[in-house]
Amino acid sequence: MVLLKIKFTQQRRVHLAQGLWLLSWTAVIWGAIIFCLGVYLKMELLRRDEVMDNTEIHVVPNILIIVGLASIGTNWVASCVCQDSLDATRFPRWKVLLLGWFPVAAVLCCLLISVVVLSFALQGRLEESLKVGLRNGIRFYKDTDVPGRCYQKETIDRLQMEFRCCGNNNFKDWFEVQWVSSRYLNFTSKDVKDRIRSNVDGRYLLDGVPFSCCNPSSPRPCLRYTLTDNNAHFNYEYQSEELNLYSRGCRQALTDYYMELMNSTGPGVLSVILIQMSVILGMRYLQTAVEGIMALEDPEGESDGFLLEKGVKETMEDLKVKALIMLQFWLVDPIASEGSSEDADLEKAEKEASPTPAS
Asked: Do the Cβ atoms of 63 and 118 come closer than 8 Å?
């Protein structure tokens, strides 16, 4: 039972080849766009790798890069096949290559779908990674003299200014860590001694934040210290005051930024999926129609184009049989090979040892 058979005249074959050629080059352009989006997302993730606890989210840009390159390659091949499809002397060279082209194109569509799914599925892992990474970044903010953490302060400050955020969840996260380096503390000062003694771990804690938390759009000069003391500042109310600081935490700001980047790839990825599926279906019709006209040896005659020569079940059985045959062909049993060689040597020795018949 031939599945979805269509009659193709010479004119329809020409129109199909021309349309597929244009569609293939459209997919090549979209593949290049997907590749560029993947590279950009990868670079943005690497820029802030210090405030991430794991790299699982990198799977999304990695797939985008691979899919973009694969889309460029497969659709370029498709455009070449379309050009040669109406030349009886040039099309046969693509027959073997097309056997592998269709599975590769199908896998490409599956990878594109996985990108869309992973973009939403990894949001929770991204938030958890940023939560742990930012927490460690705030802890090591003061360690400007420690190898491996020298630029942690600069990273956090630039991050808070660029994304207009403060702390992990909010500005109060800075109250729980010592973010001022001990080399800049005057240990002869009574205030410093009292703060260190009042803490169980001997840390110098402040109800203050770094300068990068200050909101420059606020009309009031930035208040960074004694933020919880209403009497420390004139006309100040801790519970209701905007504090002149960024109110949003950096974890939420970064999560929103990266999710917006990944979601922005959605329309492009969906477009490539639709185009790629159209190219696959069109290429199958073109392949079967051209092979049919070559079998009839009548370039100007009619031929049948179809998706499957048999039903779905029969086609799957044929593919299974062909796969098993290929496995048997490529897999060679070394024990059996050794055994066969030993039997051949033994048979040869017996023949040499047996006396020749007297004449």
From this structure: yes
Lowest mean pLDDT among 41-45, 131-135, 339-343: 339-343
When computed from its CA atoms, the radius of gyration of the chain, rounded to whole angstroms, is: 34
- Mean pLDDT over the full length of the chain: 81
Residue 7 pairs in a beta bridge with 304
Q: Which residues of 242-272 are buried (b: 16+ CB within 10 A; e: fewer)?
A: ebbbbebbbbbbbbeebbebbeebeebbebb
Spatial distance between the Cα atoms of 102 and 5, rounded to a whole number of angstroms: 19
Q: Note whether 137 and 281 are within 8 A (CB).
A: no
Between the two ends of the chain, the Cα-to-Cα distance in Å is: 68
State whether residue 60 is helix, strand or coil: helix
Label residue 42 exposed, middle or buried (CB < 10 Å: 0-12, 13-18, 19+).
Answer: middle
The two three-digit tokens of residue 171, written as one number: 């500005």
What confidence score (pLDDT) does residue 299 get?
67
- DSSP 8-state symbol, 357: P
Given the structure tokens 């990825």, which residue do they identify?
Answer: 269
Q: How far apart are CA 145 and CA 183, in angstroms?
A: 10
Tokens at 149, concatenated: 């953490």
Whether the full predicted model's pTM is greater than 0.85, yes or no, is no
Phi then psi dihedrals of residue 172, to 5 deg: -70, -15
Give the SS3 label for residue 3: strand
Our CA angle for 120, 124, 130, nearest 5°, is 120
Query: Residues for the chain: how many in total?
Result: 359
Evaluate whether 41 touches 61 at the Cβ level (below 8 Å): yes
CA 261 distance to own-chain centroid: 12
Q: What is the dihedral of CA 230, 233, 239, 240, to 10 degrees?
A: 140
**Cβ proximity of 64 and 41 under 8 Å:** yes
28 neighbors 229 (Cβ within 8 angstroms) = no
Count Cβ atoms below 10 Å from residue 188 Cβ, excluding itself: 7
